[in-house]
Amino acid sequence: MKRYRSIFLDLDGCIYRGNQIIAGVREALRGFRERDVKILFLTNNSTMTSEDYAEKLRVMGIESVPEEFLTSGEAASHYILANSGPSNILPITENGFKEYCRRMNHKVLEAEDWRLAEYVVVGLDRNFNYIKLRAGSRAIMNGAIFIATNVDRTIPTEDGLDPGAGSIVAAIREATLKEPIVIGKPSKIMMELALQKVRVTPSEILVVGDRLETDILAGKVIGADTALLLSGATTRDAVERAPSQNRPDYIAEDLLELYKNLVRLNLI
Questions:
Q1: Distance from first CA to last CA of the chain, Å, rounded?
Q2: Which of 134, 142, 149, 155 would bridge 46 by S-S if both were Cys, CB 3.0 to 4.6 A apart?
Q3: Domain holding 37: CATH number?
């Protein structure tokens, strides 16, 4: 009988919206842990480190450790290290990705040093401006490799959807006519790193998120089952309009409903 030993769980739109926890999350996470389901928080948001995310959850009353997180920022820094060793990186991101660069001995460049860039890494940057657009575009046209931590169009907040990293990536793509290497979900790059962290087979994993085009597709990329939560960026109507091959195995209003359904079905 199928049993899930691990869940890959998105943060934005599944655990919280902005700084507001979603109802029932504490109870659901407590239940998963009591049933020895290994949790890996898997986020495309590169703005913070695993330690920052663990602290954010602690403030919300959720106990976790940094080892339970994998961000697209960490995955991007790891990808560059694995392929090129310590490198000169021009980041158009916030501090989370930059911190992983420092830990992995990459050199973090300022905008005025764009000529030295071997990689340009673009993620969510709420201080994005024309100077950064110009520096990133020139570096890429000068031969730097274009990396996107993710291409999420929007990000859920307490009062609605804000522009995501994908909107910034699109600006640089338009300026350079270059396509980026995408690291975050649904890329296999990030999902294979996640598999290494939990050390269980895809058939024992449930990938949980709030987006069809990232979370659900990411699960399908590695051959895992998927669950969509309607507490974030996707509506039930959007699921029903999606091609059958893009739909999740389970749909729930929120994480607590999903947990209760999995218990009822004896899947955890």
A1: 11
A2: 149
A3: 3.40.50.1000
